[in-house]
Design a protein that fits this description.
By secondary structure, this protein is mostly helical. Helix content is 72%, strand content 3%. The chain contains 17 helices and four strands. Strands 1-3 form a two-stranded antiparallel sheet. The protein starts with a helix and ends with a helix.
Length: 420
Amino acid sequence: MNKNLLNKILVTLGFLFAYRVLAYVPVPGVNTEVIKDFFTSNSNNALGLFNMFSGNAAERLSIISLGIMPYITASIIMELLSATFPNLGKMKKERDGMQKYMQIIRYATIVITIIQAIGVSIGLQSLSGRAGEPAIMIDINLFIAISCASMLTGTMLLMWIGEQITQRGIGNGISLIIFAGIVSGIPSAIGHTINLVNTGEMNFLVVVFMALIILATVGIVIFVELGERRIPISYSRKTVMANQNKRIMNYIPIKVNLSGVIPPIFASAVLMFPGTILQASTNEYVRMINDFLSPNGYFFNFLTFVFIMFFAYFYASIIFSAKDISENLKRQGGFIPGVRPGESTAAYLNEIASRLTLTGAVYLGLISTLPWVLVKFMGVPFYFGGTSVLIVVSVALDTMRRIEAQIYMNKYQTLSAIGL
């Protein structure tokens, strides 16, 4: 293996190890046993979902218990604003402007983290254990200050780790952090399932059925994620002759799922944010709204499907620009057979992208809500949800593609240095 690639893999693993270590560093002044019992009893609602994405750091009230979700929420807000305000969108496309754009996201992350940390701290004030022991063992005002500082530090560390992995490691840092958090819960879920089978609380056939569903979901995700529509293109004879020693791509690949794994992550971040805030309230009506937004309810899963559809179209419109592709083709002397260059090509590409986005959005929505269907109508305790499977498989495929690309790039560099 190339030394440069090995270093990048080791850097990635090192930062992910640091992330997992931080998950075991609790906020000072809390009774971790009370927090763990509370999350165990709420494993099937929004808190369970939140705990899964944080890599079980929430049930320990770790300094990274808020996870990377505040950063994702801030990114969502900025993406919406950049699509609404042209000046902000222009800033994002410029090199110097992109630095300011990312700085705004960091400041927004700080604000969101502080708001969530205060909400969690106030909510823990009314939490007590089975024997009546309080969750907070110090003065509430002092605890709010300490928890805000601790959680803010933890979230900033996670954001820094994600950026370092992206720049110096392999793959997308933020996605890999979420990936590591979800994967870290697999061993305990498997162990819990084995215990249920041994004690007779779960039928072995149910476990087999769960395994088949997981394998089928993984297969569908791999099939769709690797699927693409290849639009044939031709070049004028002059262009071909001028580039006869170079490889010219004769098709435009458009992925079936243009938006990737971003829509489920964005939808989860948006839906978990109000749940985290509302959980801190003791008001009867607020609690009713929080229960109404439970992941076990119809409305929550309906909102999940709707948000995934929305973010799929929204993100696809950002990353796929038919106008830019048509202009580049025209400059290079390329064209799609049967379609006139320019605006007609852009319209043709937009039409194909819209159809593929619809297919990809429906696929993402169904994969994300499938576990709820199993739990609701078949009584299956599905511990590894569709969103989790989607994120894990998609991030793994993306990381493998990046490693493969790095290997090929190293081969080309070697050939250019030593020749054939």
